[in-house]
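Running this now, will post back.
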Amino acid sequence: MIKTTLTIILFILMMTVIISIHEFGHFITAKLFNVYIYEYSIGMGKKLFSKKGKETVFSIRLLPIGGYCSLAGDNDTDLENNPEIDVDPSTIPNERTLNGIAKWKKIIILLAGVFMNFVLALFIIAIVYLSIGTVSKAPEPIIKEVISGYPAKEAGLLKDDRVIEMKYDNGYALKPSNFSDLSSFLSVYDESYGEVTLIVDRQGEIIEIKVTPVLDESSSSQRYVIGVNSYDYKTEKINIFNCFSYAFSYLVLMTKLIWTTLIGLLKGVGLNNISGPIGIYKATSDAVSSGFTTYLSLAGILSLNIGIFNLLPIPALDGGRVLLTVIEAIIRRPIPKKIENVIMTISVLLFILLMVYATGVDIFRLFRG
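Update: finished.
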């Protein structure tokens, strides 16, 4: 019971911080460009507390998962359901609305939330590295040993083969800078991906080898492997001067892997691996059991995931709204409101369907154990 309560609190705290930081990005850049801000809210639903500043109402609401930054010119009709905002949108000068400012300023405001998610992820992962104190620096992507009985041996990989590129059938490719990149690349593998293509340098000869990873039954992490080992890792100390460098490199790799997964999903590959709120809660529970450092790592990766997800060109997300703004800049006129509303409605419905599907997958996993 105590663990469940702690998990719920830490789950809510994690989601609230990540989303509030995202919305703060919109808030601070809107202030920078003098866009009128109706409300900055932490949480959703019924208001628990609010205080009005010079213009903006700052509020805390009942449902602690979520938040928003309400800007002039952006869904002004929502003000009808918020009696605390006693400002008539028609009285706000057009140059102080989201649609009245220069397109490049609007794009910066829309992308600022994603940027803040990346910054938050960087700081969290840097703290994780500092708390660990040391890091194992991966050797070059050269195979030291090919293990008998595994796919790599059957596919024809040999000792001292240098892996220069890895490819999935969904079109994503990675040129590993070290052996850890190989492991990370395989960490997102799903059976529906099929074969993995390895481009190796064998004493100057470039060879293409196809291999199908297998699930490592001896590992509790349920990861896919091909059956190769690396040369020895080197241990390096982490300090305040290099922690951000290591964190940045790690997040760059994770970004590549997240895009790999997203590209696969667009092609219908790996749909059974997506997670919704239940899956995130389960991951939080597992992280809490493993310790605070693991919990922090999850928060950092989740912040990165949310940032990247918001970059997708779906009109209901920041990336989609940036796309619409770019289109308006190209055609030099606003997209007709009726067309924009239809696009937004369809994208929201698709987003809801995705969340329902992800939740269904989460529930299936829970019952499957």
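The mean pLDDT is 82. More later if anyone needs it.
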